[in-house]
User: What shape does this take?
Amino acid sequence: MTELSRRSFIVTTSAAAMSCGLASYALAGAGEEHTYEFMVDPSKCIGCIHCVKACILENDVPEHNFRTWIERYTFKKDQTFIVESPNGGLDGFGEPDVDPKDIKKAVFIPKLCNQCDNTPCLQVCPVGATYMGPEGLIHIDSEHCIGCGYCIQSCPYGARFYNHETGAADKCDWCYHRISKGMVPACVEVCPTEARRFSIDGSDPLIASEKNEGNTRGLRQSIGTEPKLAYLGLEEKVR
Assistant: This one.
């Protein structure tokens, strides 16, 4: 995977996102502590998979592993639903395997690390390789990780995987190498519909506004993980 291909993809898709009015963000000072907020609006996700591709290129994610991926929820009129994510969404979404007249609606759900405040993965790590930074984000020290897999099994969101190239657990870190320099995560930068929004020290007031009005919630809030990742107008059945 070449630097040229990574830059080429980011530049191309970033231009598309900017044409849709993606807000600019002020540069955050290096070495300072900041407040980060991430919001996903499923109603705007079109399943284009630009985010998944950008993440793979930006973070050198091994084939068939994902730091972020897209799921399609097909809700049926009988109150049941079908969840699909063919190869993280990279293989595309065909017609749902259900009679069209039985479909109530379908929605794409972007998934990534929820950056929980009460995180199981941190609690089960026997060597402290998973830790919470001063800004409240969860990181993995791949040099100290022993690859036991406890954190992978404990994550209720399936957001972690074993990286066979590094021999350590791996996951989304909201592109910390970017956001700590005042940039948005790669997946946010390339989203053409602003289905993913990111705020550094309140740089995106819409996120705070939606949260204050009670329009957002985290995935599986009932299990007490206290996820920081906020979803706007999320269906209760989405897990």
Remarks:
- The chain has one domain: 3-232.
- Residues 12 and 19 are 11 Å apart (CA to CA).
- DSSP finds seven helices and eleven strands in the chain.
- The helical segments are 3-19, 50-59, 120-124, 150-154, 176-179, 186-190, 205-212.
